[in-house]
Amino acid sequence: MQGLRPALEVTGLGVDLGGHPVLDDLSLTAARSALTSILGPNGAGKTTLIRCCTGLIRPTRGSVSVLGTEPGGTAAAARVGMMPQSTGAWSGIRPLELLRYLASLYARPLPVDALADRLGLHPLAKTPYRRLSGGQQQAVNLAGALIGRPELVFLDEPTAGMDPHARRATWELLRELRTAGVSLVLTTHAMEEAAALSDLIHIVDRGRVAVSGTVTELTADGSSLEDVFLANTHAGLGG
Ligand SMILES: Nc1ncnc2c1ncn2[C@@H]1O[C@H](COP(=O)(O)OP(=O)(O)OP(=O)(O)O)[C@@H](O)[C@H]1O
């Protein structure tokens, strides 16, 4: 039955870019109403994986199923949200104009003003997106990912550049969404973030899943999550 399938099923995924394998026989799942974190060094393939899951890249090998449907198809579009790492496309638009436009694309969007309040966007209402600070742009990106009431949301380093207040507020929001039944898949380099939020963690290295488990399982021998990360991955940059 479709309702019992995981939110995300990735099977034997392979992606070649620039003549090189970026993802190589990568398989993982993310459960419904859960928060799943994808960790990995710089260049491990996390963003590429999310792009496959949202239909932006067609894999060279393997398959992806989101909510039991094909990524990027019309069935998935209305039910899947994405917060990208950065987006230059919204350069001149003001945050609330952007959210109102995005809301107009969905049948049952969240109320724009309430979401903007929640993410502290009202004071930024008149500032073009490109003039916002990095953390403020992240808050707008997050609002854009959530405005359509997605059942599954991909968040690519959602709190990168956020100060501790904004980061904690974002954690709270993500926890509330999970409690409300939303499935969340995020990438992060912040080990304490992954440890605080995740129901399940996949550590990716060189395009493959190196190890998966709950925080309790991964750290059962007394290691920190960072120790587990370091022991299961190669240096991504300059290492
Ligand atoms: N269009 C492309 N052509 C060639 N190589 C690419 C292309 N896009 C990505 N890559 C390469 O694929 C690898 C994985 O990139 P990706 O952005 O998925 O990594 P990541 O795990 O998200 O890294 P980070 O943590 O630094 O954001 C990198 O080596 C990158 O240079």
TrEMBL record:
Gene Ontology CC annotations of this record: plasma membrane
Keyword Transport belongs to the record: yes
Keywords, sorted A to Z: Antibiotic resistance, ATP-binding, Nucleotide-binding, Transport
Gene3D superfamilies, sorted: P-loop containing nucleotide triphosphate hydrolases
UniProt-listed GO biological process terms: response to antibiotic
GO molecular function: ATP binding; ATP hydrolysis activity
Annotated ranges, domain ABC transporter: 8-231
InterPro entries, sorted: AAA+_ATPase, ABC_transporter-like_ATP-bd, ABC_transporter-like_CS, ABC_transporter_ATP-binding, P-loop_NTPase
Protein name as annotated: ABC-2 type transport system ATP-binding protein
Organism: Microlunatus soli
